[in-house]
Amino acid sequence: MTSQKFKVKVFVKILLILMFYNNIFSQVPEKLPFFEPADTFHNARFWTCAAGGAAAYSALVIGLNEVWYKQYERERFHFFNDVGEWNDMDKVGHTYTAYNESRLVFEGAKWAGIQRRKAMWTAVGLGSIFQATIEVMDGFSKKWGFSMADMGFNTIGVGLFAGQEMLWQEQRVVMKFSSWQKPYSETTILSQDGTATSSLQKRATDLYGFGFPDGMIKDYNAQTYWLSANVFSFVKNKESKFPKWLNLALGYSAGNMFGGFRNEWEEDGAYFIVDEELVPRYRQFFLAPDIDFTKLKVKSRFVRSLLYLVNIFKMPAPALEINTLGKVRFHPFYF
Questions:
Q1: What are the φ/ψ torsions at residue 283 (nearest 5 degrees)?
Q2: Residue 332: which of 284, 282, 289, 283 has the closest Cα?
Q3: pTM of this prediction?
């Protein structure tokens, strides 16, 4: 999967999640408090959720086809092996998206009064369908193909949600996301034939865009995905005064990526290759404290709903990093 391809997928996935979440909280005619889940099946809420889900799915299929797939040649369905591309940051992104899609669908189903186990299987089914649709569309694109690796990581995300629901009936370990764009070197890089120049900063801008909004969504070097575990939920003594909102998070990121598998690219007809010894690609692993915003004591159901959405992001905090360059670093502030 190319970086630009991933940008479109991320955008559509975020749109999908926001559209679904918006639609489940609209047009409820009865007196049941707006943000309170129904105790029994609520017909109006169910059809509101169904309409929202259908609209979101339609937006996914039509939007991707119009803004992306139409631009490229199509062929018969085929497979594509992209394991290791972008140091697998896109694979972890698939897991993150599938997990949080499932969580949001689950909450919407409960809001409509669907029995808990049925709500879980609804979330598993829809989360899988949303992700599989993208892969099937890839499968008919000549430039890419159906990625079994992507499907595998989608399944891990859905499974992480369903496994915890079946085991604990709560999400003790959630997937979160953070992003902070780093500056890149502006040192001149010569093309292979010596006729053109570029730089890592220029390449990064071409790949990932410019500024925080672009960088947050597009820049693989800026992104970190987290498994954030709520410590109190694993404490046997529920009378303990240990903070119920405190989490411990494990993060994964990667750096120095300016191409899918290697740091080489074509720019205005010139070909550039970056010396791997000077700019080595690497993987990063983090350990950091975090906050489970859903465990904060808040009376307002509306605010709790907002905190539920905020909880898909990792809070800035000190972090310990271990990377594949053999270095250990402490970050007083990491996001």
A1: -115, 150
A2: 289
A3: 0.86
